[in-house]
Amino acid sequence: MKKPVLALLPGDPCGIGPEITARYLNANSFPEGVRIAVMGDRKVLDQGALICGIDLDLPGYADIKSVPEDLDVFHIQSHNAPDGLPMGKLSAEAGCYAYSMLNASLKMALEDEVQGIVFAPFNKQALKLGGNPEKNELELLKSIFNRPDIHGEINILNQFWTTRVTSHVPIGDIPLYMKKERILECIHFLNNEMKACGITPNIAVAALNPHGGEGGLCGREEIEAIEPAAEEARKQGLSVLGPYPADTLFVRLEKEGINGVLGMYHDQIQIPSKLMGFDQGVTLIGGLPIPVTTSSHGTAFDIAGQGKAGFTAFSNAVNIAADISKKGEKNHY
Predict the structure, then answer these.
(1) I want to staple 48 with a disulfide (CB 3.0 to 4.6 A). Which of 13, 22, 103, 179 is the partner?
(2) Mean pLDDT score, 240-244
């Protein structure tokens, strides 16, 4: 059986993506059983290597069909980046290049030339300025793969997985999404994605309101939607705890053997998760026919070009994509 191929995208060329990609490749510690195709303009990758004081020995090809079967790590010159891009700054030209590179990799995925995608951080504004018709990468992936109803992002830190009922929506709109059916779908979504990676889920559900709503004195979302969804999931045989007040939920993780958390909104989950390991976390776009992962941090324009960025999170993203692609769990959601 052929090894699955992961497309590695160095991200926004004005951010830390080319640096962390170069550092990762230089470490020469690749997951077994997969092949790695580094995408994009070689000069962008070489610039990242130069910033880090690295000399990359990476064979290059014009397309993936030209690569020898026994070669596991290689570069594909998929697009040419414009010259003179401003390091550490938002750039529409950089966004156009990054969008083109991402689109090329998605086309390869649709044609089964790659079986997973790992990308270094993109900048949402740059992608939008560069031609992305959707508001972010998640919506683009949902559109390309025709999966409009997936819930999307899962954050992974070691063996601890989290996702949210709502993601990038205004705080004032969050109560509109507090429906039993939606919350139950999200529980199943997280449960299925964890199982696809070989993990036995034990999921805790967060409350929305302070102190879990205090029996309706401080909001009724727990009574009307969150608790019924959690109870229904338990009846269906899932290992689900809660809902727990959000301010004590993360204290319970080790004591109750929790390895998955469903939050109600972005910062409720992202703040404690990043405090636990900001430079290690991975984002998995779940519910797609192939694994798509990235590091949980952003483009870090403030340190781009300084050779300071670490690659631990990016390495973790590659490993998770490799694990899922090797299991062949396509269309599992």
Answers:
(1) 22
(2) 97
**Contacts of 79 by beta carbon, 8 Å cutoff, 6+ apart:** 40, 41, 97, 100, 101, 104
User: Can you tell me the distance from the alpha carbon of 58 to that of 254, in angstroms, rounded to the nearest whole number?
Assistant: 42
Quick check: 184 pLDDT over 80?
yes
The model's pLDDT over 258-313, given as tens digits with 9 standing for 90+, comes to 999 999 999 999 899 888 876 789 999 988 999 999 998 999 999 999 999 999 99
Q: Does domain 5-150+282-327 have CATH number 3.30.300.10?
A: no
State how far the Cα of 24 lies from the Cα of 178, in Å rounded to an integer: 41
pLDDT digit string, tens, across residues 96-108: 999 999 999 999 9
DSSP 181: H
Q: Is 258 exposed, middle or buried (0-12, 13-18, 19+ CB in 10 A)?
A: buried
Nearest-CA neighbor of 311 among 19, 6, 14?
19
pTM of the model: 0.90
Q: What are phi and psi of 175, to 5 degrees?
A: -60, -25
Domain with CATH 3.40.718.10 in the chain: 5-150+282-327
Q: What are phi and psi of 293, to 5 degrees?
A: -130, 160
- Structure token digits, residue 185: 């779908």
DSSP 8-state secondary structure symbol assigned to residue 60: E
DSSP secondary structure string for all residues of 76-97: E---PPPTT--TTS--HHHHHH
CA-CA-CA-CA torsion sign (121, 125, 129, 131): positive
Is the pLDDT at 215 greater than 60, yes or no? yes
Q: How far is CA 144 from the centre of its chain?
A: 16
3-state SS, residue 173: helix
H/E run at residue 35: strand 35-38
Confidence of residue 233 (pLDDT cuts 50, 70, 90): very high
Q: Cα-flanking dihedrals φ and ψ of residue 225, to 5°?
A: -135, -50
Whether residue 333 has pLDDT greater than 50: no
